[in-house]
Design a protein that fits this description.
flat, 10 strands, 417 residues, alpha+beta, single chain, 9 helices
């Protein structure tokens, strides 16, 4: 047990000692609450389940522990414990054993219950496909109700017309967006090459079929204006930095020359000092003359140090400007590549949306063709896909009254499609 755990344990034991009455009232865990559902006793925990854990002999609020993908959940004092695949009673017994084995509690009085089960997913021919919170005794029919009910296609002639118009609008909108994203991507490629022209052969492969034959003059013109503005801005920034580097390097050259001149000045000052000192030894000059010569030499050397300091600052400035210039190019390339990746993803999503709308139109046509025989009645099939504890999946043909389990995926399809 480390220092933090020891301190937490001492605090816990102090609270425990002050609340003996609470122990008698609450008893041992696994009580009523969200987990007291009809499936709780036999349900085996899996990743995504949220658990409520509580010490029954204190007044602290319960804590929530979520089962992670590796099957572990984190609990007070003992940390991560693998609970995946266990029922609530089995998990509770394991936790009590952990507290005893680690000499933290002699007679653990704790509760454990499922606060929130993994959601169920309803996909296919429903109005609002997605994930929905699981509750006890949830049936296929109820899950479809959570998703807004089945998607009844072409209930009457006017509905079919409206639906078909909406779907065609979705297809046209998606197609236009795909073309725009494709030309956008081609412009980004031109930016990488520092070109001022958009090359349509550079559009992503998945979008070429949409670009071929499309009226692109206006779109390309706008993208090339953006391209030229970007190149102008980049050139301007680079020129400013390059000019700053050039001026600083010229300043360094001047300072180098000034250093040479100052060294000559110092040499002359040292010669003068030796001459004056020699004259002073022979009594041919005054002490004041010697002092002035010494001061002159000292001043000249100090001035040289100042010049050398300026030279060093100029060199540092040049290095900083060169680094800034290199960073400008690197950041620009990184930003363009990131935008290119985003365009690819956007195009893929738009193509998926377009295909979904096209499939709905085909489905609508199939229903219309079969309308007289079926008298506008559409029947559905239900399939439940369930993940087993060993990681594999199983598929179950279901009926509206089939009960679902947490994490189930319900696929609703029109019969015969």
């Amino acid at each position: 047990m480390n220092v933090s755990q020891a301190f937490t344990w001492m605090t816990f034991r102090m609270r425990q000692a002050l609340r003996p009455l609470l122990v008698a009232c609450l008893g041992i865990a696994y009580s009523a609450g969200p987990a007291s559902l009809s499936i709780a006793a036999d349900y085996r925990l899996s990743a995504g389940d949220a658990l409520t854990f509580d010490f029954l002999d204190d007044t602290e609020l319960p804590v929530t522990a979520t089962v992670a993908r590796n099957g572990e959940a984190s609990f007070p004092l003992i940390g991560a414990v693998t609970v995946m695949g266990l029922t609530i009673p089995e998990a509770l017994a394991k936790l009590k054993g952990e507290y005893r084995t680690r000499d933290l509690l002699v007679d653990p009085k704790v509760s454990l219950e499922v606060a929130t089960f993994r959601p169920v997913f309803v996909l296919g021919e429903v109005k609002n496909p997605g994930s929905f919170a699981f509750f006890a005794d949830l049936t296929v029919d109820q899950a479809i109700g959570l998703a807004g009910g089945t998607l009844v296609v072409a209930a009457n002639a006017s509905d079919r017309i409206i639906l078909r118009a909406r779907l065609r609008g979705d297809i046209e909108s998606a197609t236009a967006e795909i073309v725009h994203e494709a030309v956008y991507a081609a412009r980004l490629v031109a930016q990488l090459k520092s070109s001022d022209k958009v090359d349509l052969s550079a559009v992503p492969k998945i979008a070429r079929a949409y670009v071929d034959g499309a009226p692109l003059e206006g779109l390309v013109e706008v993208e090339e204006k953006i391209l030229k503005a970007d190149l102008t801005a980049r050139t301007s920034q680079s020129q400013i930095l390059a000019e700053g580097i050039m001026h600083s390097e010229n300043g360094i050259k001047l300072l180098d020359e000034l250093v040479l001149q100052q060294r000559q000045v110092i040499k002359n000052s040292e010669d003068d000092l030796r001459r004056v000192a020699d004259l002073r030894k022979r009594g041919l000059t005054t002490e004041s003359d010697l002092s002035r010569a010494e001061n002159t030499e000292s001043t000249d050397k100090a001035h040289l140090l100042e010049i050398l300091a300026s030279l060093e600052r100029s060199r540092q400035e040049v290095s900083a400007l060169k680094l800034q210039l290199a960073k400008l190019a690197a950041d620009r390339e990184k930003d363009i590549l990131t935008q290119l990746q985003a365009r690819e993803i956007a195009i893929q999503k738009l193509i998926s949306q377009k295909r979904a709308a096209e499939e709905q139109i085909l489905l609508l046509a199939a229903v219309e063709a079969d309308e007289e025989a079926k008298e506008n009645e559409v029947s559905y099939t239900y399939e439940v896909r369930r993940k087993i504890l060993d990681g594999s999946h199983t598929s179950i043909k279901a009926s509206p009254l089939t009960e679902l389990l947490p994490g189930d995926v319900l696929l609703v399809a029109i019969a015969g499609t």
